[in-house]
Input
Amino acid sequence: MSKPSDLIQGTLDLLILKTISLEPRHGWAIAKRIEQVSDDVLQVTQGALYPALHRLEQQGWIRAEWRTTETGREAKFYALSRAGREQLERELVQWERLSNAVGLVIRMAPGAAK
Amino acid sequence: MKLRRGWSISRMRLRSLLERSQVERELERELRFHIDQQTEENVTRGIPPDQARRLALRRLGGLAQIEEECREMRRTNYVENFWHDLRYAVRTLAANRGFTMVMVLTLALSIGANSAIFTVIDNVLLKPLPYPEPDRVVRIFFSNSTYPKFRFNPFDFRDYRARNRSFDSMGGFLRHDLQLSSGGQPERLTAIRVTAGYFRVLGFCPTRGREFESKDELPGPDRQVILSDRLWRRRFEADPNIVGRKITLDSQPFVVAGVMPPRIFHPGNDRNAIAHGDTVDLWWAFTFVGDPNNRGSHYVDGIGRLKRGVSPRQAQAEMQSIATELEREHPDFHENWQVHVVPLHHDVVGGSRRLLLVLFGAVGFVLLIACVNAANLLLARATARQREIAVRSALGAGRYRLIRQMLTESVLIAVVGAALGALVAVGGVRILVSLLPANFPRADVIQVNGTVFAFTLLVAIATGLFFGIAPALQASRTELNQALHSGSRTSTSSARQLRLRDSLVVAEVALASVLLIGAGLMLRSFLNLLRMDPGFRPEHALTASISLPDQEYRKNETVVHFCAELVRNLASLSGVQFAGAGTDLPWTGYNENIGGFLIEGRTRAPNERIHARYHAATPDYFRALDIPLLRGRLFTEQDHKTAPQVLIINQSMARRYWPNGDAIGKRVSFFTDKPKPEDWMTVVGIIGDVKDTPLSKATEPAFWWALHQHQPSRTISIVVRSGSDPASLLNGVRQEVQRLNPALAVADVRLMDQIADASVSTPRFTLFLVGLFAGLALLLAASGTYGVVSYSVKRRTHEFGLRMALGARRWDVLRLVLVHGVKLSLAGAALGVLCALALARIFQSLLYEVRAEDPLTFAAVSLLSLAVAAIACYIPARRATQAEPMSVLGSE
Output
């Protein structure tokens, strides 16, 4: 199994959940959206996106549906399930805690060294 | 929420599995869409189309790899592994046909037996009664310390019904059969009188006409009757205009008020018992007659439908407070009485619960033993498979994977066994139902159903895991190097494994001993029953019952005249030795009592309750039943209406009320208020005791009026003793009855033998089944012991050969093997005895005159287990001694 090179796996899940929390999107749109919003800082390894989507769907956090895009093509749209919305809340809280902790460590580290 | 997620997950899994090609197509489409989108974007950026697509593909990564990863995410590999394990298991089992057959057949038998007993439990104990909202239907009993389940006085019943707030409706009923004489052979119909509200309690509505209303409870010229669907079709040609029609029953006119739909289940009752079930032919309106202030006689059974949300306990509390009111209003009649409210389901099946649970326990033990046997076989085979397992594990199978593979095998064996077992159950249930005791509740509805099959499958899976887990854990622990290097034949099982096998033998001998002790106790108890002196002689006696219609036989003299004439005519039939008539017959559930009578020269002690069962009989009634006269005399023809009134009492009554042994000549009066001289009755004879049922602990005090002087009932039991086959008298009896009155039906024709037989049918049934299961358990335990010992003998053949080559005699080797086996079974038997002692309390209520700790049974069973174990060890032990030392050593 290939690992996303620039994103740890849990983070990818969080990004996907967050991205589709506003409206259902298809895979390509999810990748684009993550890149756009992060000002192209986060380059999603597209290869890792689809297994992640399928895993999340298996876990019941997201639901897939075939719909027509604006260009009139059939695409598989992913939407958050109710359980997924709760999962997103949990992951956000966790992320917040983690990034705060990391931030604290980074900021305190030089002081501690002195 | 969790549930919904679980549901959606399992739906996904199922879809990934079952619609695999569809899912695959979708995956391919999804990825193609992505590439197309990316290509388009690349083109809009100005990249030439042919390159745009290539770039898009490169950006995405290896397509096949992504697809594989997506599949992985869908977790279908679990299932694929399962299929693989299953195929492997089938191949392995098919290769070891003998081994597989033994296991499958043992399991089929024991799982089948379990399912059969469970079928009875499910249908009788677990299934709700066939009424709408059955949990709300209750029995209401009037109760005191002597009669815990007594009936109501009708006027009391009416007060309870009017004053309570706990019940939606309440109904009273009592059995009162009616005779249908028009249009064919006279027939006695099973009938009950019911108050208004009776059908509302049960939740049934007539298909035609109406239910009884309160106006039907007033005595009037038009008696109202409701027909069962069965009777309406059978005797009234399903007349669509039957409602309102006048029909004649018991020589009286009745008006048909309605017809009930089929399958109306009678709640069951004790007095003139009708079993629970679709047993009643017709219902007629109960009318309240007599003095509402005389509340002495109790004959109305109460049922009620609780209001929603009211518990039986709450209802009982309310009824009890009404009882206190009634005690204040009618102080003479309500001393120390209580009201009990019991869920109907409990009342119907409560009595059979313990029996069924004991049987379920017994059959569960058999299954446990079968499991132990199966585990033993698997262990033995796991040793033989060490190399195979080692190879598989060397090829990369993890321990978890190996355990799963072996559990798949054991569960497969169990499931195949259970499939056969289901067939055993279907057959077994038929046999079981035909063996059930006569009065067993709900026997008519017992059938194998979906619940039973689900239970069987569940048991199979649990069984497979249970007997598979220990061997699987053992085998998967195989030391890789050791197993691959050592030769397969001499590969040793570890000490741990030997200990496990030994303890399995101990366990199965213990389980079998418990069952054998149970069966032994049942056997002793049953033998006690057979050896018991019933107090009468059931052989060569024919019995029947006749109801004289109230209308025709209103006067007592007419009843007396009829009985006297019938008995005289019957006695003159050829082959008849004695013919008698009476209110009832032994062992038929008769339970009519009178209390508070006066005994001359005796003052009632405070709190003493004077009561006795009353009967009436013609002079030869006792001779026809062969109930011995102990003192005094029997009735004679001279004890007629105008002669001094006489009584015959049983020994229990004599002992209870005349403890000094001088009952003969003493007088009793049933007129408690200043009796006149002619109200006193003199005790003229004492007869032997006859218990209510053979299982009753003690005989109730009872007395007999001379039927010619006192006639409490118009339903007459007749009994005819013959010198030869009593069944040949049947036609003669019927002719004699109909010669006196052609409209009379001769009902309940039975040999006294049959009545006696039916009354021990429950202990016989229990003995048969527990004995059967114990036999099966013994067989399984013996074969298990045999298996273990012969396996260990085979393993030690080399050692034995060596020993004998070094000068050991055959006997030494034999002893070596025997001692080991006997030690194990001794430990097992001891453990079994301890378990049986712990379970004694549960058993006791099913036993008759034998203690559940009966030392004789325990000793006999322990000896039997030991003997069987010794035989099971002896056969392989002998084989060990027959090994030729040279050939054994030479084969190395």
